[in-house]
Design a protein that fits this description.
- By secondary structure, the chain is α+β, with helices and mostly antiparallel strands.
- Helices cover 25% and strands 29% of the residues.
- It has 2 domains: 32 residues, no CATH class; 69 residues, OB fold (Dihydrolipoamide Acetyltransferase, E2P).
- A hairpin with a 5-residue loop joins strand 4 and strand 5.
- It is rod-shaped.
- 11% of the residues are buried.
Length: 119
């Protein structure tokens, strides 16, 4: 009889520890009932110097880290603007620019900076 009580107690403890038993208050777990919304990250500005630029892309060196280079293609909304800038001479090596981009992506949404005179 003692063994039965001990085994029954251990079995009840094992079931309680495994999480099979429903919560005591009878409420569902709110984390599993409503999945979290995935929010898109906000665009960030990158300040840097132009290393290389053409009508289709621009390579920028970070002002904070001289070893970090990033190459960006242009979003459809700024392609016409960038073609006009490059028709007039475009950005040259060393020009200071700010690039608006989504974190982790290589598409420039906006580019601010004054192009220097062509050489």
């Amino acid at each position: 009889m003692k063994r039965f009580r001990v085994l029954a107690g251990l079995a009840a403890l094992a079931v309680a520890m495994s999480g099979i038993v429903a919560p005591a208050n009878g409420q569902p777990n709110p984390k599993s009932a409503f999945p979290a919304k995935a929010t898109s990250p906000k665009p960030v500005w990158l300040k840097g110097e132009v290393v290389r630029a053409d009508a289709n892309s621009i390579t920028v060196r970070h002002l904070d880290n001289a070893l970090a280079l990033e190459t960006f293609t242009f979003a459809p909304g700024i392609q016409d603007k960038m073609r006009k800038i490059f028709d007039r001479g475009g950005y040259q090596y060393g020009d200071k620019v700010s690039v608006l981009r989504q974190p982790g992506q290589t598409v420039a949404l906006k580019i601010h900076g004054k192009p220097s005179k062509p050489r």
